[in-house]
Specification:
The protein is of the alpha+beta class and 178 residues long. The protein has two domains: 32 residues; 143 residues, no CATH class. The chain is built from five helices and eight strands. A hairpin with a 2-residue loop joins strand 6 and strand 7. The longest helix is centred in the N-terminal third of the chain and has 27 residues. The protein is globular.
Length: 178
């Protein structure tokens, strides 16, 4: 074997190891399953601005410290989307984030299709659960529920460098309150 072939082999091997490592870190390593703790696992904001537990079962969730938008949860509920719409604050422009394939209860494409078809309604779970990040709760007509994090307008501005404006909370005081 010539030195050139050995060098090419080492480069290919290093690239393969790096690729497999990055895939593992992104899909498995950073995520951890969140155990169910009770009624407060799924909270929704009412039309009055109060937060209240949503009756649910079969709760499963994952999260990662590496990003505030990696939270995903699935649950079941007896609350119909139309009934929830009379009580809970709606969330506009929801866009479910794709979950790792091994977290099979959360299918972002199917949730988005349900939102587009009107069979899934999305509500505010908590505004600014982290600076610029909202927690949203979706409920389907079939009794399935989903939770994920959305970047809100203030978050978009903060992350792209646009001036925040008066409608965004003060980031310094927000971080101090946490």
């Amino acid at each position: 074997m010539t030195a050139g072939k050995l060098m090419v082999g080492l480069i290919v091997l290093c690239g393969l190891i790096a690729g497999v490592s990055m895939y593992y870190l992104q899909v498995y390593h950073f995520y951890k399953e969140i155990p169910a703790t009770g009624p407060r696992d799924v909270m929704v904001t009412t039309l009055d601005g109060d937060r209240t537990p949503l009756p649910h079962g079969d709760f499963r969730a994952i999260d990662a410290n590496s990003s505030p938008i990696r939270y995903r949860a699935c649950f079941t509920t007896d609350i119909a989307p139309a009934e929830a719409g009379t009580t809970f604050e709606p969330y506009d422009k929801a866009d479910p984030r794709v979950a790792p394939g091994w977290f099979d209860c959360f299918d972002a494409e199917a949730i988005a299709d349900g939102i587009d078809a009107g069979t899934t309604r999305v509500f505010v779970g908590q505004r600014n659960i982290d600076y610029g990040i909202d927690r949203v709760v979706a409920i389907t007509e079939g009794g399935q529920g989903y939770v994920w994090h959305e970047i809100n307008d203030c978050g978009d501005k903060a992350y792209d460098g646009t001036p925040l404006g008066d409608d965004c909370p003060d980031r310094a005081s927000f971080e101090k309150d946490k």
